[in-house]
């Protein structure tokens, strides 16, 4: 008897079990080769991981239409909508794509074009995972992004985890994964660029009286009480950008590199040129 409803926590547990199983095989490989010469496996490490993932795929999804993690929890893909062509696409996404990424990281480290393409693919994949996870929380179907793309669904042969009555564990697991996704997403956001775009919008509303790009300013002066306009400490290698305030060289240069339209946090003057402060 096939059961339609499957708890979300059970589906997420199956993904976690699959990841742990792969890590277990890798650890066994490293333990078996730990007495070899250091670094001997590094050139072929992507190929070894490809063999491990291919072996896992062959004896799980290819033969049984379920991963080992799903099999442990009595889950299985519905065979009526899991054709052989979808199996190939599933393998290409879950195994082949990871291998291409890892091999490119080893072989094309200095190739900026290849690294840029990889970063773009990784970003698109991450965005897809985020939206799929939000959709999964709402619908309870397709916990993995590739499942949603191929339209394959899970079914349970029997009721599992009948003793799971405290749904706070489910909520805690879902929120934990959601917070991890938010943290990963925020790490990819360019805060300086975001601030620049917000500044362009806000300066036409209520910030227009503060932001200045070409107005004249008083000459900078320095005394014993002068502090950096950015870090509020004594300026190290004092530099200016056209306003009356003094910066540390590192503070000013780093902010200008990150955001070309960086404005003075004290007077909002947006100077384009950085120069060393000279005491007259």
UniProtKB/TrEMBL annotation:
<dbReference type="InterPro" id="IPR017907">
    <property type="entry name" value="Znf_RING_CS"/>
</dbReference>
<dbReference type="Pfam" id="PF04757">
    <property type="entry name" value="Pex2_Pex12"/>
</dbReference>
<keyword id="KW-0863">Zinc-finger</keyword>
<keyword id="KW-0862">Zinc</keyword>
<comment type="similarity">
    <text>Belongs to the pex2/pex10/pex12 family.</text>
</comment>
<keyword id="KW-0812">Transmembrane</keyword>
<keyword id="KW-0576">Peroxisome</keyword>
<keyword id="KW-0472">Membrane</keyword>
<feature type="domain" description="RING-type">
    <location>
        <begin position="228"/>
        <end position="267"/>
    </location>
</feature>
<dbReference type="InterPro" id="IPR001841">
    <property type="entry name" value="Znf_RING"/>
</dbReference>
<dbReference type="GO" id="GO:0016558">
    <property type="term" value="P:protein import into peroxisome matrix"/>
</dbReference>
<dbReference type="GO" id="GO:0008270">
    <property type="term" value="F:zinc ion binding"/>
</dbReference>
<dbReference type="InterPro" id="IPR006845">
    <property type="entry name" value="Pex_N"/>
</dbReference>
<keyword id="KW-0808">Transferase</keyword>
<protein>
    <recommendedName>
        <fullName>Peroxisome biogenesis factor 2</fullName>
        <ecNumber>2.3.2.36</ecNumber>
    </recommendedName>
</protein>
<keyword id="KW-0479">Metal-binding</keyword>
<keyword id="KW-1133">Transmembrane helix</keyword>
<dbReference type="InterPro" id="IPR025654">
    <property type="entry name" value="PEX2/10"/>
</dbReference>
<keyword id="KW-0653">Protein transport</keyword>
<comment type="pathway">
    <text>Protein modification; protein ubiquitination.</text>
</comment>
<dbReference type="InterPro" id="IPR013083">
    <property type="entry name" value="Znf_RING/FYVE/PHD"/>
</dbReference>
<dbReference type="InterPro" id="IPR045859">
    <property type="entry name" value="RING-HC_PEX2"/>
</dbReference>
<keyword id="KW-0833">Ubl conjugation pathway</keyword>
<keyword id="KW-0813">Transport</keyword>
<dbReference type="GO" id="GO:0061630">
    <property type="term" value="F:ubiquitin protein ligase activity"/>
</dbReference>
<dbReference type="GO" id="GO:0005778">
    <property type="term" value="C:peroxisomal membrane"/>
</dbReference>
């Amino acid at each position: 008897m096939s059961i339609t409803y499957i708890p979300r926590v059970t589906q997420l547990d199956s993904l976690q079990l699959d990841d742990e199983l792969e890590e277990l095989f890798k650890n066994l490989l490293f333990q078996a080769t730990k007495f070899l010469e250091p670094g001997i496996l590094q050139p072929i490490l992507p190929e070894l991981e490809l063999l491990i993932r291919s072996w896992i795929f062959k004896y799980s999804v290819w033969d049984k239409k379920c991963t080992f993690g799903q099999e442990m929890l009595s889950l299985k893909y519905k065979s009526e909508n899991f054709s052989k062509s979808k199996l190939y696409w599933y393998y290409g996404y879950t195994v082949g794509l990871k291998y291409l990424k890892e091999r490119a990281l080893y072989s094309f480290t200095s190739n900026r074009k290849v690294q840029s393409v990889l970063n773009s693919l990784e970003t698109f994949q991450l965005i897809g995972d985020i939206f799929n996870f939000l959709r999964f929380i709402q619908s309870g179907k397709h916990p993995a992004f590739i499942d949603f793309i191929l339209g394959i669904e899970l079914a349970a042969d029997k009721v599992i985890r009948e003793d799971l009555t405290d749904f706070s564990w489910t909520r805690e697991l879902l929120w934990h994964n959601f917070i991890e996704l938010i943290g990963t997403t925020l790490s990819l956001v360019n805060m300086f660029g975001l601030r620049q775009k917000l500044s362009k919008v806000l300066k036409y509303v209520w910030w227009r009286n503060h932001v200045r790009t070409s107005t004249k300013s008083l000459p900078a002066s320095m005394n014993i009480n002068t502090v950096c306009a950015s870090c509020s400490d004594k300026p190290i290698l004092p530099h200016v950008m056209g306003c009356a305030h003094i910066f540390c060289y590192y503070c000013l240069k780093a902010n200008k590199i990150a955001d070309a339209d960086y404005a003075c946090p004290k007077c909002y003057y947006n100077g384009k040129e950085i120069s060393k402060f000279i005491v007259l």
